[in-house]
Amino acid sequence: MRTTSWVCACLLALGACGDDAAPAEDMGDGDMVVADMALADEGVDAGPDDFARLASWLLGDFDNQTQFDGGFPQLVERHVCAPPGFESTDDVLWLFVEHVEHLPEGRDAYFVRINEVRREGTGAVSRAYRFPEGHPLRTSAFTFNGSRDACFMTSLFGDVGPADLDYRAGCDVTFTPEGDDRFRAESPEETCTFPGGWIQTLSTVFEDGLDSRDRAVTPGGESGSTFEFRRVEDFVPPAS
Question: For the whole model, what pTM was predicted?
Fold first, then answer.
């Protein structure tokens, strides 16, 4: 079964993880973002402004294969797409985020979120949501879930909408542009909590990928590794 720590399960996902009311078995069911899609189809104008650039960089398929080949202990795919039934505009972008870890048992969709990214000045703020209890896209970081690949099989979404989602209070992530080639993504300290501690998202987003670290702080100290996700062109889910 899963050997990843709960910290590794709480990768970025544009809203970190944690819930000040979360039970211990929910701890670390993290947050993060899937198939390349035309921005025009998602209601986002692919122009030169910062918000459109951020949207285009977040959407797509990614993995940390190069990092894994260099000795990193986890191989994880990151998929981000526009969820059906959620209306994006020039100022609001809805994203579905799915993280899939390669385990001895197979590909495991351990992390699934919906993110609502809102323009704020030259940057943006992302709110993270979980699917409701009982929905097939509500998965757990502490059990083997098998594959979902919802960006490639959109029938899994059903008729779920924004009003059905569970908001992850305290875990908002702010994106700040740093020049024309990257955004800094950061959540506040101490507000994104789990039983016994809190998590802060510290990430850098750029055209070809994302470097993401969730800094987990407990009375025993700090932990958290940086995952180096890079864009994968023409990704096709493997046959199950």
Answer: 0.81
